[in-house]
Structure formats: structure tokens, C-alpha cells
Amino acid sequence: MTAPAPSALDAVLNHIDADSENAVGRLFELLRIPSISTQPAHAADCRAAAEWFRKDLASLGFSSSTREVKWAAPGHPMVVAHGEGEGTHVLFYGHYDVQPTDPENLWRAPAFEPQLVTDASGRKVIVARGASDDKGQVMTFLEACRAWKEVHGSLPVRVSVLLEGEEECGGSNLLPFLKENAAELKADVVLVCDTAMADRRTPGITTSLRGMMADEVLIECASHDLHSGVYGNAAANPIAVLCNVLATLRDSDGRVTLPGFYDGVKVPDDATRAQWRELFPDDSALLEEAGLSIAAGEKGFTAVEQTWCRPSCEINGISGGYEGEGFKTVLPAKAMAKVSFRLVPGQNPDLIREAFRAHVRALLPADATVTFTPHGGSPGFEVSNGSAYLSPALNALGDEWGVPAVTMGCGGSIPVAGEVREALGLDALMVGFAQADDRIHSPNEQYGLDSFHKGTRSWARILAALADVK
Amino acid sequence: MTAPAPSALDAVLNHIDADSENAVGRLFELLRIPSISTQPAHAADCRAAAEWFRKDLASLGFSSSTREVKWAAPGHPMVVAHGEGEGTHVLFYGHYDVQPTDPENLWRAPAFEPQLVTDASGRKVIVARGASDDKGQVMTFLEACRAWKEVHGSLPVRVSVLLEGEEECGGSNLLPFLKENAAELKADVVLVCDTAMADRRTPGITTSLRGMMADEVLIECASHDLHSGVYGNAAANPIAVLCNVLATLRDSDGRVTLPGFYDGVKVPDDATRAQWRELFPDDSALLEEAGLSIAAGEKGFTAVEQTWCRPSCEINGISGGYEGEGFKTVLPAKAMAKVSFRLVPGQNPDLIREAFRAHVRALLPADATVTFTPHGGSPGFEVSNGSAYLSPALNALGDEWGVPAVTMGCGGSIPVAGEVREALGLDALMVGFAQADDRIHSPNEQYGLDSFHKGTRSWARILAALADVK
């Protein structure tokens, strides 16, 4: 199948412009479903979000179904849909689950009551948990498909859709599901919409991702909470043990200290580093939105390099003893931390989990025990530069935004990219329209109306551009 | 006034034995009042506990009142009561407030529904928050006074009583209250019942106490919670900053690293250390009740020495990032820790607070700020060996328990001991009947029925013994 005539694409783009208010309405309906995958109390809401997508895809003429997953908890269902058509076959991936909303009190409106607000700069943004990550981004693709169907009755390429519900909770069902259904899900290329633009004006395709290895560490000492006066000094303090361990994970240069941690890690070529430095010349400008000024990580790398192509270690949560108002002179029995390592291509999550646990065990003093709980792991990823689909997609993005699209790295983990390669042998093109200030995972998460609308138009163009890839 | 005849004391002791069930009933009534001083929601309960004591003291013929305190929050009232009589004038101190009850789920029965249970060893114990610390202990003294009044219509010495409601929350109203009411509260000696026996069989008077300096540390970095993938490595992580700081507070020998921390700290004389080692020859036996085996603190000192006469640093609470079920890839904006330093005589809480805060500030990296919240401070304390009241009290205890009473240190802070010396110029005799396994400040706090009953009998003897101190 060859690319449709330019006039055919123009008609679709015009329809997207005319239908934009309805598109926002559909997204708001979806955002009202509190599909928090990591909290068991929201399991039914996750199913409701899956069912919402199944119905919407069916309304677009897809053969659409939800599928149970059986390999591990929490077991939120997959949504699988197939459209008709010939030629290039794309498999679109997204996720319908969202992050928890704490701290609730920092939300200006309830997290699941979406608001369309105008920010200080006069930009219209959609505010809700999941507005950007990933419900808003997924809907840019579905709205593009809807426009093609409503204008021409068909899509320029053959489209299959796979939506999961465990992306935000380190779920481990996606890979076995892909493997068990490889024949059904096999396509020519995978399209993922879960990433950001280079900046407000510059579209990009993310060609490398950091993976992640996450572990929970529980340190236990006394058999019960003790009085810190009666026992203080003589009784092992699990909070102190935990802090002593966590303080050894990085050295004074910001490098992770685990043996072999950097084995296989490659530094990007000079051309790539030069391009990134041209796009992001100023660390403090890049960190300003976060209220920060200095790249705090590995010395010798810019903020963009530290997040796009260098592995790291973060403490994501810590808890122990008395955390309430006032003061309690307790010497607690246990303390807990949630730790994650961001990984780049070449690093092995399983080996790094072993190295981390061995490091912690080696530092345990007498009377302290440790229990580990794994929270998922995925390797880093990079698109093979040879992918025939990369250039047409970059060009289509450039046409929509009026500036050349760039290839980028991404600090976040999108396990699917590595897993579709492992299970289906396919490259994933990560095309996203999020912005650095979308506050994903934070209170008042937002998605620009421009991201949503021009993102939809971008997908309409990309679908056309991929039609004649040989 | 001279000591009453032995027969007079015997009659009182017999009455205590006969009335013991009623005494337990009165204590249970008191234990049902959830007077948690550090939680604002329980302010009314603290007042209710104060009022309960005012009424009980009035029923013993004391001129009894509750007094507002005005110097600082939370402002729980004092209970002041004066009995009639001549000669030796004792001021008894205790506190009616209790610790929080978290974690609730570890209590076998609700914390404020007192239970009389028989433990595995066949010992009868009273289980409830405050059973030992300090409601049960205070009632041993009041029941002794009740017995003297009911048998003889008067007490062998002149007794005043002062009960406060901010001992468990680092309150700062006691000292100014003592100073403002010094003329009214002046006596010959202060009696305090808030300490433990040397062991099950051996009574003791605590002649030295550790003080405490408590501070809350809040580290803030980003202006809001960040996605740890997008920002991990480049953004300062306040949990990591906090752990790095807390890990530097003690060295590998368990010594506190703050400059000048040990200035003025004296090691007990060899005789005292020998007596303690005879009483507690085995660290592991001493720590067994806590489920521990090794003295984890300052090298070169036994577990008893580490807690009774050596200063220390404890982390009492820590909190930051995502602490719930599952995993959240958040790079949080802030992290908090509650830290306390146990102090011995010779150390200055104010100087140590300054040294601690300077130490934390010196370790702060770029993009991190710190906020400190003080939670009270009191110096260590020791009874001047010359106190004329010490020997008679030790002898009275020996008579009741059938073994010589010993002088002890105590790892806990009882600010009143230092404050009555400062405000009233009086020594405090700390006579207590708690046991190491009372689980004070922990779930299932308990007080032995033997501690309660023989403690009451002990006070009846001490009141008689102090009558003829010149």
C-alpha cells in the first residue's frame, strides 16, 4: 500500500481540528477512572479503564477484547485490538494505569476530576492524574485513527493496539503475554506514545531509554519497638543501619559504587553529545522547572547526559520509627527503603540486583537482618539506527511542528521497548508529546492542549508516512 | 516529727494487702483515659486525666487543684496538691500523659482497655498504655498515702504532689511553672516514681539520668515531587542527602562525631562499674528481652554502661518519598528525620543542638535546604551523694524486698530531676518499680502486679523512714 494523496491527509487534519472539543471530552471521560495499578483497592478501576478502551476501539471498527494475565500479581488485564488493512502493520502500545496521587493535599483539584485550565503563560493545559502519563498520550493516537476512519472509512496502514495496566507498578505480565501471543501481535514496527518532546517547539523520537531495577529493603533489629532512653546506644537501630547502607551506594563523584555496575556502559558518540548540548546548553535552565540549579549526579556529564545516557541510583522512599506530629522517643524495630537503579543499554538488571543485595548484606551489623522485595527490572533500550521507519516518522513530525525532529534519549523506563524486541523481534519508535513540566507522577499532573491536539495531528501524518515504507 | 512505731507501719502494710483489688480497680479507671500528650486530638483526654488526679487527691484530704500553663504549646495543665503535716516535707512528682499507641495492630487488646493477664512465666501483669509509664508508678505512691490516711488519718511526713502532662512530648512548661511557683512548691526533697528496679528482685534508687536533646530535620530539594526516571541522577535527592548526613553522626566505634560532644563527660568510678558488672554480667542476657544479643553502641563499654552513663545519638523516625504498598518511581521534594541525643551530666543540650545543626548545614549539597524543629532538651542529672534522704530510702526498700537496694543510672530522660534542682534547689530521689520488659513506649506496655503492690508497700515504708531525717 502506498501513501495516501496529500489531499487525503489534509482532510483528516481538518477533521481533527474541527473535532478537537469532542476529543477533549472523550479524554476527560477516561481521566475520571482512578486506575492506580499499584494499589489493590483500585483493581476494579483498572478493569474499568481497560473496558473503556475496549469499547472505544470497538467503536473505531477494531476487533477489540480484554485479556486476562496469569503470570503474576496484580494481574490487570491487557487490551488487544486489531484493525483491518494491508501493507505496513504497526502495533501501537500504551498503558491505561496511572501512578498513586499522594500527597493528595497538594492537588488544586481532585486528581480524577480533570480540569482545563490556562496557566500563567496563557497556555491551556489539562490537569489530572494520567493526563500526560499515559492516557492523554494514548488518546492522541486513537483520535488520529478515529479521524482517518471518519473521513476515509479506513486507515492508511494496518493497525493493532496493545494497552497494558501494569506499567506504573513494575508488573511482570507483559513479557510472558507478548511471548504467548507473539504470532497474533507480530507486526512490522511498534509505535509507543509515552515519551516527551525535546522542548515546547521541537518534536523528537526517543531512540534510547533507561531501564530500571527496583528493590525494597527492610531492615529489622529488635523484636519490638524500644524506648530510646532505656536502650539507646546499646540496641542496634535499624534506621541508622539503613542510612549507613544507603549512604554507601554513591561516591563523592556521584558514581554508583556497586562492583561491575558500569560494565558494558557506553558513552554516546561526540556527534550525539554535541547535538544534545546545542539543544540543552544550560543545566540550570533545564532544572529550573524542578526548582533546582545544578546537575547533582555523575561528575563530567551534563544534566541531559546524566538522565538520558548515564545509569544512576535513587532512593524513592524511606520509612521508620515515629513519623507523626511531635516527638516519640522510640528506638524502632524496623526501617524500610525503596531503592531503584536506572540502567542503560549494556547493563543487566539481574546482575545488578544481585550486586545490590550482596552489598547490603555485607554491611549488615550484628543483630540486624534484611529482607528484600523485588519491584521489577528491565534493561535499557536503544533503537537500531537502521530502522526503516525512523526517518519517515521524523519527517512527518517535522512537517507538523515546522522544525526538524530530533532523536533523543529518555531517563525513564519503558519496559515494553526492550520486551517487544525480545518477544517479537521488533523495534519500537517512541513518539511522544509530553513536556518536562507535565509533572507526571506528581500532584497536578498536566498535558498541554497543544500537545494533545498537535500530537493527534502528528500521528495522522505518521500513519500516512509509514504506509509506503518497504 | 519522728518515725511512727513499727506497729503503725505494719498496720498500713496490712491495709495495703487487704485493699489491693480496689487499688487495681482505681488504676484501671485511670488507664482508660487516652491522655496522649503529643497528639492535639487528645488534649481533652489529657485534661480529663489531670482532673481525675485532682479529684483522687482531694479524696485523700489534699488541697488539690489543676493549674493552667501558659509558656508553650501544648499547654496541658499541672496538678498540684498539698497535704497537712509537720516535719519532713516531700514533693512527689509524676506525669499523667502517655506515649502514642502506634502501631495499633500489634496490641493484643486496645491500648486503653486495661487487661490483667498472666504471662508465660505465671506472673500477673497489667497491660495498657501508661500501665508502667507513668500512671501505674504514680498510683503506687498515691495508694501508699491512701493507706496511711485510712489507717491513721494522717501521713508520717508532709506531702505535696505535682503531676504534669507534657513529659512524653518534650514539653517546655515545667521549668517556668516550677520557677513561678517555687515558694509554694519548695520542700525538703523531691520524690519521683518514673524509673525501673535493677532487676525483678533487686530494688534500686536511680541517682543518675541521661538528658536528651531532640531535633527534627527537614531536607528539601526540588519544588515538587519528580519522576525518578526523568530526573534521576541530575536532581538532588533529599532522602539521599538525609541518609548521607545521618550516616556521619557516629563513627565505626559507635562514638558520636560532633565536635566537643564528649566535653565534660565523666566515666563512673571503678567501684560503681564493678557493682554494675556484678548485677549485669552478661550483655546478651540484658538485651535478650529486646530480641538482641550484642551491645551495639560505644566500644569499650557494657550494655548497661552504654545506656546508664554514656551519651548517644539515635534516629527516632525517618520519612520520605513513597512509603506505601508497591513501588512509585518518585524522586521526592523532601525528607524528614527525628533525631535525639541522650546526654549525661557535664554535657550542655544547647551547645550540642548548635553543634548538631552546624554539622548538618556543613554537609548540605547545592540545591538542598534544611529546616530544624526543636523537640525539647534537658541536661543529664545525678543526685549529690550527700543527700540525707538517700540512705533511709535505700534501707526502706531493702526491708520490703529482702535484698539490699542499689544505686543505679538510667538511660531515659526525666527532665524534672534537673529542673527541680534548678528551680527549687532540691535533690530528687528516683524510686521506681518498673521492669526492663515493661515495653514502655511500645505495644502491649505492661506493669507487674508485684511492682504495683510491693511498690505501694515500699512507698509506705519510705514515708515512714523519711519522717525522722534531720
UniProtKB/TrEMBL annotation, chains A, B:
<dbReference type="InterPro" id="IPR011650">
    <property type="entry name" value="Peptidase_M20_dimer"/>
</dbReference>
<dbReference type="InterPro" id="IPR051458">
    <property type="entry name" value="Cyt/Met_Dipeptidase"/>
</dbReference>
<dbReference type="Pfam" id="PF01546">
    <property type="entry name" value="Peptidase_M20"/>
</dbReference>
<dbReference type="Pfam" id="PF07687">
    <property type="entry name" value="M20_dimer"/>
</dbReference>
<dbReference type="GO" id="GO:0046872">
    <property type="term" value="F:metal ion binding"/>
</dbReference>
<dbReference type="InterPro" id="IPR002933">
    <property type="entry name" value="Peptidase_M20"/>
</dbReference>
<keyword id="KW-0378">Hydrolase</keyword>
<dbReference type="GO" id="GO:0006508">
    <property type="term" value="P:proteolysis"/>
</dbReference>
<dbReference type="GO" id="GO:0008233">
    <property type="term" value="F:peptidase activity"/>
</dbReference>
<keyword id="KW-0479">Metal-binding</keyword>
<feature type="domain" description="Peptidase M20 dimerisation">
    <location>
        <begin position="217"/>
        <end position="367"/>
    </location>
</feature>
<protein>
    <recommendedName>
        <fullName>Peptidase M20 dimerisation domain-containing protein</fullName>
    </recommendedName>
</protein>
<keyword id="KW-0645">Protease</keyword>
